[in-house]
UniProtKB/TrEMBL annotation:
Species, as recorded: Escherichia coli
Ranges where the AraC-type arabinose-binding/dimerisation domain occurs: 16-142
GO-annotated molecular function: DNA binding
Highest taxon, organism lineage: Bacteria
Alphabetical list of Pfam families matching this protein: AraC_binding (PF02311)
Keyword DNA-binding part of the UniProt annotation: yes
CDD domains per UniProt: cupin_RhaR_RhaS-like_N
Gene3D superfamilies, A to Z: Jelly Rolls
Keywords: Cytoplasm, DNA-binding
InterPro entries for this protein: AraC-bd, HTH-like, RhaR_RhaS-like_N, RmlC-like_jellyroll
Protein's UniProt keywords contain DNA-binding: yes
Designated name of the protein: HTH-type transcriptional activator RhaS
Length: 149
């Protein structure tokens, strides 16, 4: 199984957040990574096999992937994603308690896949665009802004 490493995706060792667009996302074999990921499906369709369970994903799907989750993409059709990568909920410098805001596993069930409407997807796109604009900056105000967004 492929392992993706944060050193290949984060602009610096200090960066807690990175944006990784996949425009389009082709079929991709099963993998996991040493970072967490919020997958935002912009448009298109595909099958996201998450820890062995297949999910149909379309525009407006949001997936929360932890560092120990295994996943793959198959049967993609013009599937365009934006991945918001973060090292770990406890690696943020300016935002404490992030883990409490993320989906939590209960009774062996992890609510990994969510749906947002078009209006919310537009808001998410704007936030991601702001994060991308500040991605090259390594100063403390830019880091704080990316984490808060």
């Amino acid at each position: 199984m492929t392992v993706l490493h944060s050193v290949d995706f984060f602009p610096s060792g200090n960066a807690s957040v990175a944006i990784e667009p996949r425009l389009p996302q082709a079929d991709f074999p099963e993998h996991h990574h040493d970072f967490h990921e919020i997958v935002i499906v912009e448009h298109g369709t595909g099958i996201h096999v998450f820890n062995g369970q297949p999910y149909t994903i379309t525009g407006g799907t949001v997936c929360f992937v932890r560092d120990h989750d295994r996943h793959l993409y198959e049967h993609t059709d013009n599937l365009c994603l934006t991945n918001v990568l973060y090292r770990s909920p406890d690696r943020f410098q300016f935002l404490a308690g992030l883990n409490q805001l993320l989906p939590q596993e209960q009774d062996g069930q992890y609510p990994s896949h969510w749906r947002v409407n078009h209006s919310v997807l537009q808001q998410v796109r704007q936030l991601v665009a702001q994060m991308e604009q500040q991605e090259e900056e390594n100063d403390l105000p830019s880091t704080a802004s990316r984490e808060i967004l």
